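## retry 2 of 3
previous attempt timed out at serialization; input unchanged, resubmitting
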Amino acid sequence: MHDDFRTENLLGATALALSDLVLAEATKAVGTSSSGAAALVVLSTDPGLSTTELGRRVGLSQSAAARMGGGLEKQGLVHKEASWGGRVRLQLSDLGGQAAQTLLACRGEVLRQALSHLDDGERKQLGELLSKLLTGLYRQPGDAERICRLCDRIVCVRDGGTCPVGQADRSHRVGHERDHG
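## retry succeeded, writing output
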């Protein structure tokens, strides 16, 4: 008989261990907090976000996001640009763009090392299972940005692939429009 409690425990330990390793390597590489690292990655694919929106995507309150943005600006990783209506948008500096690439490279290396313990068939099977898990973790609009805040988004869609979280978001929005439209 399969022990679900053991599987849950193993998944929890694996998720936490990988998260700790990814964040430790990524933040060490560029000298930011974990939320600062996520902010750089988010801005690398979606530049010009307001501080409030960036904070929402990385799981920070508006005031915490403002402090983080100020810290990233002091480090020379982002700069603020005024836009219409007096709103301020955050943009990566050249140094910030390089830092985001370094973060993603460090993240990738940690994950490659973890996956090196599996053979090709196991990696393929794990990929399919992780896609199912990620789809199931999506609950509401906004989850996609939060779940994928440290993702190398290009990798998911390379060679015609589909991001499972992005697909769950699109499916949710279509279903919501159909139900309420």
